Amino acid sequence: MNDGDTLTVQYLGYESAKIVKDSKSRHDVGLKPVDHSIDEVTVVSRSVFKNELSTPRMSHHHLTTKEISRSFSIFGSADALKTLQLLPGVNSSADGGTNLSVRGGSFDQNMILLDEAPIYNPAHSMGLFSAMNTDAVSSMEFYKGAAPAKYGGKLSSVIDMRMKEGNNQEFHANGSLGIVESRLLVEGPLVKNRASFMLSARKGYGDLMIPLLDVIDNEHIHKNDILKFTDYCAKTNWTINEKNKLFLSGYYSKDRFKCSIISQDNNQQWGNATGTIRWNHIYDAKYFSNLTATYSKYNYLQRQDEDVRNFDWKSGMEEFCLKYDIDRYTTSNHHLTFGGKLEYHHFEPGELAPRGESAMIPMKFKDKNLTLVGAYFGNELTISDKMSINMGLHASLSTSFGEKGKSYLCMEPRAALSCKLNDDISLKGSYAHTVQYQHLLNNSALGLPTDIWTPSDEDIKPQQADGLSIGVHAIIPEDKMLAGTELSVEAYCKQMHSIIDFKDGTNFTMNEHLVDNVLSGKGRAVGLETMMKKIGKKYSLQVSYTLSSAQRKIDGVNKNNWYYAVYDQRHNVVVNGQYVLNKKWTASANFQYHTGGRTTVPISSFYAYGTALRIYTERNGFKMPDYHRLDLSLTYNFRNSDIRRFKNQLEFSIYNVYGRKNAYSMFVRGNRRDLTEFQGYKMYLYSCVPSITWKFSF
Amino acid sequence: MKRYIITLLTMLCYTAGSIAQNEAVVYGYITDVKTGENLPGATIFNIRNYKAVSSNNYGYSIHFQK
Predict the structure, then answer these.
(1) Strand partners, B55
(2) Do A1 and B47 touch (CB under 8 A)?
(3) A270, A267, A236, A277: which is closest to A253 by C-alpha?
(4) Contacts of residue B65 in chain A, CB cutoff 8 Å?
(5) Closest CA–CA distance from residue A6 to any residue of chain B (Å)
(6) CA distances from A123 to A112, A253, A296, A298, A691 (A)
(7) What is the C-alpha R_g of chain B?
(8) Which DSSP string corresponds to A585-619?
(9) Which residues of A touch B49 (CB under 8 A)?
C-alpha cells in the first residue's frame, strides 16, 4: 500500500472513518456511533453487504446491539435469541419460546456461547425470556450452515454472543423498568483507555402478570404461582500494552417456577453460571492469538412438598474448557486460522434426597464424564477478484468414562465458496459435516429445565450431519427501483445420522434407565429460505419466507417409517419493520406466521382386560393449529438534547394485537367416570398482552 | 478418512502457494470511540481498489496492499 492511500472503516450503526496511510503500520481506529435514522446507516449498510457478497461466508448473520434492540419482542424488551427467530430457516418451538430449531435440527443441536462459554439452558421462565440480558450483549454471530472451523461439536448452528466490555472512557448507566422485568447496567473506566468494567443485573417478575394469563380456556393460572428470575453479568478488561489484552467475564442466572396446573406442591429452580478468562495477543501484525479458559455450569432443583412425599430432586452438568486460537494473515488473499482445545464435562443425571419425614427412598443416578481433545485448521483464500473459498477441518477425540464409556474420533470438514457474478450479485455454496457428542434426553419441543444431557457412549453414538447449501445474494443497484435492497435466497439439504429419539411410552421422570429407551436413526431436512432487507433514511424493513420439511426415521419408532419432526413447520413468514415518524416517535411492527408444529395425540380409546387403552396417531402425526400474530409498538423519545447526559424513552407495545390463542402445547384429559373418554386441550400462554416500558441512560 | 486427508492436503497446498509475497500492511483494533470497545465484523476497504477485509471476532484486522 502506498503512503497517502486511504482506507475506509465501516460498521453498521457507526460513522465511517478514514485511515490515511503513513509510515506507521499500526492504526487503531475508533468509530463514532450514529443515530440509526440518518443517511450514514443506509450507506454503511449497503457497503457492508457488498463486502459480504465477496466473502465465502454463507448462512451467516452478524447482529449488532442496535439491530437486536430494534427487533420486537414480548413485554417491550428486545431479546437476543428471539431476534434470531426473525431470520429465515429458524423456527421457534413454542409461542414466545426461546428454543430454536435451525434448519430442521432440534434445539439441543445449537451451540450457544456467551463469551465463548456454553449456555446449556438459554431460557428464563420456561422460555418466555432468553437467559441473556440483551443490554449486556455487544454483538452476536449466528451460523446456520458451514461455521468457521474453530467451532465444532454441535449439529445445527452456532450462536456466538459477546458480552459488552465496559466503557473505558466515561461512566455510563442504562436500564429499563417494565411490567414483567427490569434491568440495570453500569459501566466505566477503571483506568481511562486501559481498563474498564461492566456490571448488569436483570430481574423478572412475570408472576405479576399471571392473573392475566389464560392458559387453557376459562382456566386461569393460580395466583400463588411463581415465575421469577434474576441474572447478572460482569466483565472487566485490561489493555496491558499494544500487544496484549486481558478479559475476565462471568454470568449467573437463577429461575424460580411454580405452576399449579402442572403440580400443586412442586417448586422448581434452575440456573446457569459461566466464567471466561481471555488473553488476546498480537505476536506481530500477521499473527493474532486468543487463549481462553471457560467454565460453565447448569443445575436444576425440584422441591416436592407433599405430606410424606417430601423430597429434593437435583441434576446438573458442568464443563471446563481451555482453548487456543491463532489467526495467521499470510497475504491479502489468504487468512489461516488454527488452534486446539481441551474439554472436560461432568454430568449429574439426577439425585433424589428425601426431606423431613418423607417415605421416599434416596437414590442417585451414576455420574458421567466426558473428555474431549480437539484441533482445527481453517483456510480462507481469495482466488481472484470474483472468487473466494473457505475450507476447514475440525478434528476431535471424545472419551466418555463409566460403565459403557467409549472413545470416538470424528472429523468435521467444511467448505464454502463465493463467486461474484458482478458488483451486485454473488453465488455461494457450502458444505459441512458436523458431529455432536452430547445428547439431550427429551421428547418435547419445549425445552424444559428437567431435561437431562448425556454423553456419547457404547450405546449412543455421536450424532452426525451432512449439510449442503447453495444460494444467491444480491443488492439492487443504485440506478434501479428499490435501490439498496438486500436480497438472499438459499436452498439447503441436510442428512443426519445417529440422531436420537425414544421408544413409545418412555417415562421421562426420575427414570434411571432413560438411556436404555434411546433409539437412534437418521433424519433429513430440506428447505428454501428467502430474505429481503431494506434500510432507508427513516425506515427499515425485513421480510423472510421459509419453505421447509424435517423428518426422522428411527428403527423402533413409528413402525420404522419416516415421520415428521416436532419442529416441522412447512411455511414460515416473518415481516418486521420500523418507521421513524419524527424526532419523538418511532413505530414498529412485527408479523409472524408459520404452519403448526407436530405432535403425537390419542385419537381413540377402548377397554381391554379391564383397562382403558388409547390409540395414538403415528409419531408426530398431528399437526398443531397454524401460528400467527401481529405485534405493534410505539416509542416516545423525551426531549433528549445532545448536551444532556440523561436520556429516556417510553415504549408502548402490544404483543399479539388481535389476541390469537396460539398453541404452546397440546394435551388430553380423561373422564374419571369413563376412562375411555377424553378431551383434547390446547395450552396457550398469551392472547393480547399490552405493556409499557421506561428506558433510560445517563 | 481418505476424503478428509485430501481436504487437508488441498488446504496445505494452497497455504504453501500463498506465502512469501511482499505486501505492506495496516493493522490494529477497530473500536467504538465513545466506549473503547472492540468491534468484531467491521469492514475495512481501500477506496482505490475496493479491496475489503473484516475485523475478526475480537475486533482485530489487517489490511494488505502490494
Answers:
(1) none
(2) no
(3) A270
(4) 1-2, 5, 332
(5) 6
(6) 11, 10, 15, 12, 21
(7) 16
(8) EEEEEEEEEE---EE--EEEEEEETTEEEEEEPST
(9) none
Residues 6+ away with beta carbon under 8 Å from A211:
A220, A221, A223
**In chain A, which residue's Cα lies nearest the Cα of B1?**
A411
Look at B18 and A333 and tell me if their CB atoms are within 8 Å: yes
**Cβ contact A526:A548 at 8 Å:** yes
ipTM of predicted assembly, 2 dp: 0.81
A195 is written with which cell numbers?
481498563
Task: Determine contact, residues A120/A453, Cβ cutoff 8 Å.
Answer: yes
Strands A110-114, A157-163: pairing kind: parallel
Q: Which of A651, A668, A677, A664 is nearest to A72 (CA)?
A: A651
DSSP for B7-45 reads HHHHHHHHHHHT-----EEEEEEEEETTT--B-TT-EEE
Q: E strand or H helix at A51, and its extent?
A: helix A39-54
Nearest alpha-carbon partner for A623 in A686, A563, A575: A563
Backbone angles phi, psi at A525, to 5 degrees: -145, 135
Residue of A nearest to B28 (CA): A28
User: For residue A330, what is the nearest residue in chain B, using CA coordinates?
Assistant: B19
A357-370 burial code (b ≥16 CB/10 A, e <16) = ebebeeeebeebeb
| CA–CA dist A230, A129 (Å, integer) | 11
A115: left (phi over 0), alpha (psi -120 to 50) or beta: left
A-chain CB neighbours of B63 within 8 Å are 1, 7, 332
In the block, cell 473484516 appears at B54
What whole-number distance in Å separates Cα of residue A103 and Cα of residue A87? Answer: 11
Among A7, A282, A290, select the one facing B44 at the smallest CB separation.
A7
Single out the residue of A498, A445, A434, A436 nearest to residue A101, CA to CA: A445
- Nearest Cα neighbor of A524 from A491, A496, A482 is A496
A463 φ/ψ angles, rounded to the nearest 5 degrees: -75, 145
Give the C-alpha separation, A152 to A435, whole Å. 7
Pick left, alpha or beta for residue A415 (phi over 0 → left; psi -120 to 50 → alpha; otherwise beta): beta
Q: How far is B13 from chain A (nearest CA, A)?
A: 11
* Helix (H), strand (E) at residue A54: helix A39-54
Cell 398431528 -> residue? A622
What residues in B contact A410, CB-CB < 8 Å?
none
Is the Cβ–Cβ distance between A623 and A595 less than 8 Å?
A: yes
8 Å CB contact between A328 and A286: yes
| Calpha distance A425→A418 (Å, rounded) | 10
Query: For each successive 10 residues of chain A (698 residues), what is the average pLDDT?
Result: 71 82 79 65 67 84 81 71 89 75 90 93 80 88 92 94 92 90 94 94 81 58 75 95 94 85 73 95 91 94 79 89 94 90 92 81 87 95 89 95 89 94 92 93 61 86 95 87 88 94 74 79 95 87 94 90 91 92 89 90 81 83 90 85 78 89 78 74 78 89
Q: A604 exposed, middle or buried (CB, 10 Å; 0-12, 13-18, 19+)?
A: exposed
Alpha carbon of A651 to those of A76, A85, A637: distances in Å? 7, 22, 9
Closest CA of chain A from B49, distance in Å: 10
* Integer angstrom CA distances of residue A510 from A130, A267, A503, A534: 27, 16, 16, 51
Which among A20, A329, A337, A393 is the top mutation candidate for probing chain B, defined by the most B β-carbons within 10 Å of its own β-carbon? A329
A690 in Cβ contact with A648 (< 8 Å): no
Spatial CB neighbours of A267, under 8 Å, sequence gap ≥ 6: A226, A256, A257, A258, A302, A303, A305
Shortest alpha-carbon distance between residue A465 and chain B (Å): 15
What's the rounded Cα separation, in Å, for the pair A480 and A89? 29
